[in-house]
Every structure is written in C-alpha cells, then in structure tokens.
Amino acid sequence: MKRLVVIPAALFFVLVLILALVDLAPPAFDLRPLVAENLASSGVAHPVTAVLLNYRAYDTLLEIGVLLLALMAILAVSGSPRTTSNTSLSASDPLLAMLGRIAAPVMVVVAVYLLWAGTSRPGGAFQAGAVLAALAVLLHLTGLLAGWQQPGVRLRWGLAGGFLLFLSVGALLLLVEGELLRYPPAHAGVLILLIESGLTLSLGLILAGLFLFLSHDQGGPR
Amino acid sequence: MMIDLAVWLILLPLIWASLAFMAGPGRGARLAIPALGLQLLLVLLLAGTVSESGAIGLAVGGWGAPLGIDLAADGLSVAMLLLTQVIALPLAIYARSYFQVKAPEGRYFWPLCGFLLAGLNGLYLSADLFNLYVTLELVGLAAVALVAADGGSRQLVAALRYLFATLLGSGSYLLAVALIYAAYGTVSMATLAPVITAEAPFVVWLAGGLMLVGLMIKTALFPFHFWLPPAHGGASAPVSALLSALVVKASFYLLLRLWLGPFAGLTASAGLLGWLPATLGALAIFWGSCQAIRAQRIKMLIAYSTVAQLGYLFLIFPLLTSEAALRAGIMQAFAHGLAKAAMFMAAGVLIKATGQDRVDSLAGAAQQLPLTMFAFGLAGVTLTGLPPSAGFLAKWLLIEAAIGQGAWSIAVVVLVGGLLAAGYVFRVLRQGFLLVPAIAADAPSFHPVPRTLEWMALLLAAASALLGLRGVELMELVALGGAA
C-alpha cells in the first residue's frame, strides 16, 4: 500500500528535477579561471588538491572531523570492551595468507605513491588512506590481522593524530598569518604535504576501523 | 585580533574534543570545562566587538568568496553563539557529575560533545552554503552518536530513526546546494543574494523547497517530529538537554538565515509562503502539547513539550517583514533553550533519585529535592510564558508583531499554546508537591544525588526566568547588522 504512494511520488520528483535541469542556463560565475590563476601560489600543481587543501581547506578539515566522528559513533555504540582475547588468530589457508603477504608491501608503496602524486595529478590523502584501509581489511580477511577491540592509547593517537595535526597547522597559521589556514605561498607546498601525510595515516586507520571495529570474529576465514 | 575570536570558537572545541578522544573513554571533563569557560568569555568579547563595530566577516585562507570560504558574524549569529556557550558550560559541569556515578553511557560523551559544539559554532559563523552542509553533518552525526551511546536496544532504534531523519534532511539540503551551484556557479551566500533576487529560474525554487523541507525535518517541525520524542526522551539527561536546547535550534537558525539572506528575494515575492511553516508550527503547538499532557514518562513529556515549543519558532515566518518578529523568534529560542536544558537536567536528577521515570512516581519530590522541583517550576514558568520570564517576553513580542500586522490567528495560537503548556507543567508540579506519609509502605525511596546536578539545573532555570528582565540588551544585539 505504502509503495503505491512512494513510487509515484519518487517518480514525480525525478521528473520535476529533470525538467528543472533541462533548461538550465550556464552559471553566472565560473570558478575555474580563478582556480587556475591562483594555482601558482597554492603550493600544489593539481587544481583538485588546491581546492581541497588550500582554497577550501576549512571544509576538508571539518570533513576529516566528520569521518573521525563516524568512527567515534561506532565505538560509542559497540558497547563495553569485549573480554575475548585477540591473541588467537585462527590459521588461514596458507596460499591466501601468502598472497596477502605479497600484496601488503605493494599496497603500501601504492599508497605512498598516491600521496606524493596528489601534488601534481589525481591522488592525495583520501585515496592513499583508502588504499591503506583496504590493505588492513585484506589482511583481516586473510587471517593475518585480528579484528580490533576498543582502541588502546597508541591507536587512539593514530586515529585522531592526522586531524589534530591539520588543526594545529590551521591554528598556527591563524596566529602567524592572521587568517585560519592561510598558507604563506613559499611554504604552502611543504605544509600541505605535511598535512596530507598525517591525514593518510589517520584516514587509513579510521577507514580500516570502520570495518575492523565492527568485525566481531578474531580474524581468519569463516 | 578581535576578529580571530570567532575562529577560536570553532577551533577550541575541536581541539579539546580530539584531546579528550586521545585521553581515552570517559576522560576529558577536566579539559572541557575550562575550555568552555574560555569559549563563553570569547563569545562575550565577540558580542562586545560586534555591538561596537557592527557585523564582521573574515575569509578563511585569505582567499575570500567565491574562491574560498567566508565566515561572518552579525547580531543574529552572535546571539545564537551566546545561547550555545551559555548553556554548554553549566551543562558540562552537570554532565561531569552525572556521568561520574554512571560511567558506561558517558564513555564518549566529551569528544562527541566537543564535535557537536564545534559544529554548532561553525554553523552559526558560516557564510557558505556548502560549508554549512558540512557543519550540519557534524552536528547531526554527533547528536545521533550521543543518543546511541546509551547502548540499550530501544535507544539504538531511536538513534537509527534519528539518523535516517537527519540524513534525509541534510541530504535534501545537499541536493539543493548542488542545484544552486549548477544554476549560479557559487555557494557563497553574500554572492548569491543579489543574483537570486535578480533572476531565479525554476530550479532555484526547487532548491529552496528542498532546503525548506530538509531543514524542517531536522528541526522536527510537525509532521516531521516523529523522530524527536524517542531520541530526546530516551537519551541520558545531559544529552537530552543538549539536543533539545541547542541542536534543533541550529537548523531553525539556518532556515531563518536562508529565508532572510540569499532567498530573501524569493520569499518576498511569494508572500503566502510564510504561512506554510506557521501553520505547521501552530499544529505542532497543539499536537505536541496534547501529547505532553498525556505522556506517562517524564522525559517523554518534556520531549513532546519540545515539539510544541519549536512550533512557536515557526510562527514568525509570515511576520518577518518586521524586525519585531525576528526578535520574538530569537527570544523564544533563548527562552526555550535555557528552560528546556534546565527541565531535562532537573528530570535527570529526579530519575536518578527515584530510580524510575514515571510522572506518577514523583510524589514527595518537592520535600526531598526542593531545589530540583523549584528549578523545574521556574523552567515551567518560562515555557508557559508567565512574566517576567524570557518566555513571557518572547510571546509578548510575538503577539505584538502579529497584531501589528493584523495576523490575529497567530496571537490566538500563542495564547492557547501558553494555556496548554501550563497543563503539562502543572501535571508534573502537582505530582511533585503531593505529600507522602513517611510511614506508607510503598513510599518511594530517594537516593542521594550530587548537589552540583541540582544547582546547575537551577542556574539555567533561573537564567530562563530572569532573562526577561535583561531582554533589551539581547534584542539590541540581534538587531545589529541584520541578516546578511
């Protein structure tokens, strides 16, 4: 019964949306020339990285906060620390484990490359962090890495460290340059690379945590 | 240097929230409370700056709109910032002793609370539609996590429903931002205002509609209130207070800001549009009050009262052509924020002391916990709108604005709403003041509770009741700079 209402309503909405977008005039403002003009003083050579970590770095800062927040939400919901020990990793298929071991160093190299590539071509902290997180999930699924319990102090520093580093750089620039996240053009490249390196590690841990904190088995194939 | 104050209001809570997370579960109170004190000081200085030299704007990263992100603080923003910090400090002191006794719910309270407050402060300061979306997500996710943190299955269901509602709200807001960016190529509010007024294709009306509906869902305006009572009524007392007093005000503020800012041209050309939120607001007042009068559990009663009180905020929309209506709305946000925080805090004390949360089980509370019942009563005075409370001033301003524009129906709704509020407030007070013979076998036993809890509830309740006497300063602040 509900479907009879919801489906036509959704279709109607889609139709209205399409009609509205069909006769859309070109926008009054075009930001692309502005992005390109200031690229030289942004410290990076790739426009997407320039937008994410310089022009609109404040948005990115808060978005990292959102990701960290999502992880905290999972930790807050997942209840009191479980008492099961995480030392016993069940033995997995030796072939699978070997492939996992071979993939691991390659993926680390790919992550570092992506981080470095972000300054001049598509890439950056988000992509590199995602590769690191995928590595952690892979190791978990091949039985080489146990599911995570409530985080210890080192893991907590790792999770929040990248965000705090970004925040500290922003705050420092506010004190020195008088504006939040205003990089001096001469040092913009170095600062952005520093921020991105911290973010790569923390984002890798956060994204991996979204999976590993929810994984209730102790690793190994099921 | 004075302008930086605004930025520190966003950075400080982010810093102490991250440090609290790093310090470990349940820790961070000792860092948060002094930091919140500092934030209160900063916002007072900011209010001073703004009232001396008018609205301020600053460009994050030094780029300026439309390339970068602009922040702006005018009277309206500063008033909302003030409300946030004024409630947050006593609430944090309350939460510290509340969670000491009963630890597991509060394991991640401090980091989540810090992110929530940073999101709120960021939202009030932002002048960029996309940045506003990010702050909305910070606030929404932190609020959902705080509700869910209790861990009980009923709590999880409420949190999940809240999550879907808040995601639907921010999702339609984001779609609207995308449409606006497609139409104009910028998301800066200051840049958008003149171009929208000059020419608004159909897609912008669609975007405006999506924003209106999305933010009404997030503010729990009737009939989108379905998620609020279980979420606010079921969470632990400090969380309920935070959510009811502050979180729902953020999306209301944003709606108001958009209505008066970038979309001012559209809302002025469609004069009847304001009656849509106002009608829903009137229905919210009646529906919420009736449900509150019937509620069995005390926190559900207070949560339904929030549904009703939020209705008043939306009554101002048809009247916004006059400054008085805006003042009435902000005064109502203050009155309800302070009173509702106090009420949930008092309810937390009552529940801790009696060990149950039914309205019927409150008999004898006035003898055992006079401070708490007094706080609840004072907050009730504000909600019903008796002088000299802030609630009275808000309703007075609203009726004055309504009669000034010949909108008698709104004045009638306000008056009837006050009577209905008295209905549910006195239900609790009547139970609380019932005398219990000490020798009765089934006399409820009262556990001792930390005095701090009672005093903090009383502090906020007294502030809500006495704000009416100092309302002029606040109103002058709101009038400053107008809406950007």
Question: Any overview of this molecule?
Answer:
The complex is a heterodimer of chains A (222) and B (484). Chain A has 222 residues and is mainly alpha-helical. Chain A has one domain (43-76, 101-222). Chain A contains eight helices and no strands. Chain B has a domain at 275-484. In chain B, strand 1 (56-60) and strand 2 (69-73) form a beta hairpin. Helix content of chain B is 74%, strand content 2%. Chain B has a two-stranded antiparallel sheet. The chains are: A mainly alpha (222), B mainly alpha (484). Chains A and B meet through helix 1, helix 4 and helix 7 of A and helix 1, strand 1, helix 4, helix 5 and helix 6 of B.
Short characterization:
Chain A has about 220 residues and is mainly alpha-helical. Chain A has 8 helices and no strands. Chain A is about 65% helix and about 0% strand.
Low-pLDDT runs of chain A? 83-88, 218-222
Order of helices and strands of chain A: HHHHHHHH
The gross shape of chain B turns out to be: globular
Q: What can be said about the biggest beta sheet of chain B? A: 2 strands, antiparallel
Oligomer: heterodimer
- State the helicity of chain A in percent bands: 55-70%
Strand content of chain B: under 5%
Q: Based on Cα principal axes, name the global outline of chain A.
A: globular
Strand order of the largest sheet of chain B: 1-2
How many strand units of chain B? Answer: 2
- Major sheet attributes of chain A: none
Distance between the termini of chain B: 22 Å
The overall pLDDT of chain A, averaged over residues, is 87
Write the layout of secondary structure elements.
The complex is a heterodimer of chains A (222) and B (484).
Chain A: H1 2-22, H2 32-37, H3 47-55, H4 57-77, H5 94-117, H6 125-141, H7 153-177, H8 188-212
Helix pairs in contact in A: 3-4, 4-7, 4-8, 5-6, 6-8, 7-8
Chain B: H1 4-23, H2 29-53, E1 56-60, E2 69-73, H3 75-101, H4 109-125, H5 129-148, H6 153-184, H7 189-198, H8 202-218, H9 228-234, H10 237-260, H11 264-269, H12 275-294, H13 298-315, H14 323-354, H15 365-368, H16 370-384, H17 390-404, H18 408-432, H19 451-466, H20 471-479
Antiparallel strand pairs in B: 1-2
Helix pairs in contact in B: 1-2, 1-4, 2-3, 3-4, 3-10, 3-14, 3-19, 3-20, 4-5, 4-10, 5-6, 5-10, 6-8, 6-9, 8-10, 9-10, 9-13, 10-13, 10-14, 12-13, 12-18, 13-14, 13-18, 14-16, 14-17, 14-19, 14-20, 16-18, 16-19, 17-18
